[in-house]
Design goal:
The chain is α+β, with helices and mostly antiparallel strands. It has helices spanning 2-24, 28-34, 48-59, 78-85, 92-95, 130-147, 161-171; strands at 70-75, 99-106, 108-111, 123-126, 151-152, 155-156, 177-186. The strands form 2 sheets. Strands 1, 2, 5, 6 and 7 form a 5-stranded antiparallel β-sheet that branches. Strands 3-4 form a two-stranded antiparallel sheet.
Length: 208
């Protein structure tokens, strides 16, 4: 009887701890509403487990026809981070980050045109929606970073050729892989307040 009572108590305690942990975790809406761009980092490392969680969130994004054109280059080596990303304006946010995630898109892939016969030969075709798909993945990454208590900022790459060409060359990207954006990730060294971007006047109900 005592063993049964002890087991019941242990199960109740475990459930209570689980509820407390869930209660203390931020909701999806909390993460969305409080996410801010972080450009200053402590220099502390970001673990591989954290990075894999962040990338899994990125790959959970919606994608047209399940094309999944996203590709990611993750740089954690400090010397490489400095050599690849440390020459431009505001380079400190790259050199003090724990990691840099380059969100890339595969702009073409092998496939058959719509309506082609099943035995028709495959040909290289454009991935029409790679930009949108990879943008959704990048946003998921930013939200996952916030949920983990880290910081990040989206820095633009594509379509500015002067930005993407040196990055593509330094990282050895194939011709059909374009860097959409570069995201430094790390432990925040700043705590800016979220911007209030709610503007009801931007909304049109039923029609313009």
């Amino acid at each position: 009887m005592k063993k049964k009572a002890l087991l019941t108590a242990l199960v109740a305690a475990a459930l209570l701890c689980g509820c407390k942990a869930q209660d203390s975790a931020p909701s999806a809406l909390d993460v969305i509403m409080t996410r801010t761009s972080i450009r200053s980092f402590t220099g502390e490392a970001v673990s591989k487990a954290q990075l894999e969680t962040i990338l899994k969130a990125g790959m959970a994004a919606p994608t047209a026809m399940n094309g999944q054109p996203w590709r990611f280059v993750v740089v954690t080596d400090k010397d490489k981070m400095a050599s690849v990303f440390g020459a431009g304006p505001r380079s400190e946010m790259f050199t003090t980050a724990g990691a840099v995630i380059v969100v890339c898109g595969q702009t073409t892939s092998m496939g058959r045109p719509f309506g082609a016969q099943p035995d028709a030969p495959e040909q290289e075709m454009p991935n029409m929606f790679w930009y949108e798909d990879c943008s959704a993945a990048a946003e998921n990454i930013l939200l996952a970073v916030k949920a983990l208590g880290l910081g990040a900022v989206w820095t633009a790459g594509y379509p500015a050729e002067e930005r993407i060409a040196p990055i593509a060359a330094a990282l050895g990207l194939p011709a059909n892989i374009k860097p959409l954006c570069i995201i430094p990730v790390g432990v925040p060294a700043e705590d800016p307040a979220p911007k209030d971007k709610w503007k009801p006047e931007y909304i049109h109900w039923e029609q313009w």
